[in-house]
Amino acid sequence: MRKAIATVCLSGTLTEKIEAIAAAEFKGVEIFENDLLSFNGTPAEVRRMIERLGLETITFQPFRDFEGMPEPQRAKVFARAERKFDVMEELGCDLLMVCSNVSPDSLGGIERAAADFHELGERAAKRGMRVAFEALSWGRHIHDYRDSWEVVRRANHPAVGLVLDSFHVLARGTDLSAIRSIPSDKIFLVQMADAPKLDMDYLSWSRHYRCFPGQGDLPIDDFMDALHATGFDGLLSLEIFNDRFRAGSARSVAIDGQRSLIVMLDELRRRTGAALPGLQTLPPKAVCSGVEFVEFAVDERSAVGLEHVLKGLGFQKAGLHRSKAVTRWRQGDINIVVNADKEGFAHSFNITHGTAVCALALRVDDAPKTVDRAITLLDQPFQQPVGPGEMNIPAVRGLGGSLLYFVDCKTGLDRHWDLDFEPVAADDFTGVGLESVDHVSQSMHYEEMLTWLLFYTSLLDAQKTPIQAVIDPGGVVQSQAIETRDGKLRLILNASQSQRTLSSRFLNEFFGSGVQHIALATGDIFSTIERLKENGVDLLPIPENYYDDLEARTDLSAEDVDRLRSANILYDRDGPDEYFQAYTKTLAGGFFFEIVQRRNYQGYGAMNAPIRLASQTRLAMEV
Ligand SMILES: O=C(O)c1ccc(O)c(O)c1
Ligand SMILES: [Mg+2]
Q1: According to the annotation, is 439 in a ligand binding site?
Q2: Which of 69, 371, 397, 596 is the most exposed place for a label (fewest CB within 10 A)?
Q3: Is residue 102 domain-shared with residue 8, that is, in the same domain?
Q4: Candidates 7, 33, 99, 205: which one to mutate for ligand 1, based on the most atoms within 8 Å of Cβ?
Q5: Tell me: the pLDDT tens digits for 83-105?
Q6: Could you tell me the residue range of the domain that residue 613 belongs to?
């Protein structure tokens, strides 16, 4: 299959779009008419630019409101088509994409439409061109691919073929079995788009919310299986209308598109055993069993402050790096690395962001294979010099230029603590009962959210959960969890369109996207909070009203609610499953820790989030 992308997917000028498409290793480009109309140059100049970058224009589109027109419009429509063939000749493109008629003037009837297409085919063929017909899901008479196929079949012309657009097919929930019997040589173009499940009219849904395969909820795999059954091996093109993509970086959105196709086709190969020539073979998705460490970039002065916080949270200094100003802090299964070295990645990160999480390390089944997969997915590998005898932990660039390291037992990378760190004699301090990293929450620009969703879910064997809209005093925050089936890795992506939410203010203070909070799990939150108080840790105060309401809406006893109130613990319940959460006050730069206890509960306390955000906002105002 030849991979292509439509110019409409990307932000920028036509030149910027085409350069981004070439940089993301596509072979073909769909020229959207509007992008040509707004280009200040001739179609021949566009052709030269496309050819210079090693690309090919696979189609010019859309040609609208064609089939079923009564006279005199019918004659005008054919004259208009001839004008478009002129443009295509100059553009070096031989396929005109026609989408189904939405005009109230158009007449129905498969036979009438087929006759129109036969005539268009004749005209196209005379000029060495072809036409392809797409059923828009909101087409006036034709909105079902089975009807557009019937039109193409009856047109019975070698220059007339079908477009299958996964959005229009899947959005309407049309039965897919009829795809299987379409002759593959009559499918001139396949357009791929996913979309989140939304209850709205097809047109608005399609024009604003489409996304790359894997970023949404449509059954893309079923569509691909049906397509595969036809033996199709032609043009596979991404066609995404999405407000966030239009506002995002053309370069990174184009790479996301390529990444989504690589994963989609690899999964097709895995399901069907198909030999798909020219397709990169991906190592399997990484099986992740948790967070190995969280690394903070600090300077000498802020190291003192952070280490004070860590001590308060019950962490113990467990190791000193053999060659760098780096310390390991430990409690239960949690490792925090404090990097105050004056050289290297963490130092540069600290100069830009101040005290901040500069890296996460994940425990995976096979670290070298994980990086191989990442590289095939066009993620950015990262290398920096290592000292003699020290381990080279493989890594890729993650959110906001941070690093994502991979550690495994299989290749012995789990020995990095012993090899890279000098142990520090343990004192008799026993911690506060924190056991593991429950989740890591990252704040980002709204436009980047789908990028990082795809980054994590394409690399790791992890699933997204339905997006939640959380009310912040300054606006709405969209919150998306990505988690492994066993819950050992839980990542939260947060973003908001308002500048005044806590999440957006973090981006400003932090100078970019990054880890805003880390939730640490305890088996007994009351005892943990007790000990945190003894250590003088400041917790986020929760308003009295919250506890009054809790007493009113749950069957918790007054004593239970009192215990929660006096410890500033938020509570949620899902059937018999319970969740407890408390927060530290926000540290410099907007970062904070959360303490959680789960009793089989699988969510994140979404209904408590507005309470927490309001308290954090109130405290921020007082400062
Ligand atoms: O939204 C539209 O009008 C439109 C245009 C061309 C397409 O290929 C499509 O799927 C939708
Ligand atoms: Mg389309």
Answers
A1: yes
A2: 397
A3: yes
A4: 99
A5: 999 999 999 999 999 999 999 99
A6: 434-622
ipTM: 0.99
Ligand 1: centre distance to CA 69 (Å): 19
- Sign of the Cα torsion 230, 233, 235, 241 reads positive
Strand partners, 296: 338, 357
- Other CB atoms within a 10 A radius of the CB of residue 469 amount to 10
Q: What is the mean pLDDT of residues 8-35?
A: 97
Q: Which residues contact 6 (CB under 8 A, 6 or more apart)?
A: 29, 30, 32, 61, 191, 237, 238, 239, 240
Residue 159 to residues 127, 364, 411, 494, Cα–Cα distance (Å): 11, 51, 56, 49
Both 338 and 228 in one domain: the answer is no
Residue 603 has pLDDT above 90, yes or no: yes
Q: Which of 351, 362, 377, 170 is nearest to 281 (CA)?
A: 377
Do 250 and 301 reside in the same domain of the chain?
no
The answer as to whether 35 is a domain residue is: yes
The two structure tokens encoding residue 229:
């059954």
Residue where a domain terminates, one of 404, 423, 442: 423
Q: Tokens 């009856």 belong to which residue?
A: 154
pLDDT at 269: 94
Query: How many of the other CB atoms lie within 10 Å of CB of 244?
Result: 21
Angstrom distance (rounded) from CA 93 to CA 219: 32
Same domain for 476 and 416, yes or no, is: no
pTM equals 0.96
> Residue 278: pLDDT above 80?
no
Asked whether residue 230 falls in the same domain as residue 335, the answer is: no
Rounded to an integer, the average pLDDT of 161-166 is: 98
Q: Is the pLDDT of residue 427 over 80?
A: no
Indicate the number of domains in the chain. 3
Please state, in angstroms and rounded to a whole number, the distance separating the CA atoms of residues 573 and 63. Answer: 54
89 is in an annotated binding site: no
pLDDT > 70: what percent of the chain?
100
Nearest atom of ligand 1 to the alpha carbon of 193: 10
Confidence (pLDDT) at 623 = 60
The DSSP letter of residue 24 is: T
- Ligand 1 pocket by Cβ (under 6 Å): 61-62, 99, 134, 136, 165, 191, 206-207, 239
239 among the known binding-site residues?
A: yes
Over range 483-510, report the average pLDDT. Answer: 91
Predicted confidence band at 466 (pLDDT cuts at 50, 70, 90)?
very high
> What gap in Å lies between CA 143 and CA 135, rounded to an integer?
5
Q: Decide: 253 and 243 in contact? Cβ < 8 Å.
A: no
Same domain as 308, residue 266: no
Q: How far apart are CA 181 and CA 568, in angstroms?
A: 63
Same domain for 458 and 607: yes
Q: Which helix (H) or strand (E) holds 74?
A: helix 73-91
Q: Which residues pair with 336 in a beta bridge?
A: 294, 329
CA 81 to centroid of ligand 1, rounded, Å: 17
- DSSP symbol at 12: S
Question: In angstroms, how far is the first alpha carbon of the chain from the final one?
Answer: 58
Structure tokens at 366: 């096979």
Quote the distance between the C-alpha of residue 477 and its chain's center. 16
Q: Per residue in 307-329, pLDDT tens?
A: 999 999 999 999 999 999 999 99
CATH number of 28's domain? 3.20.20.150
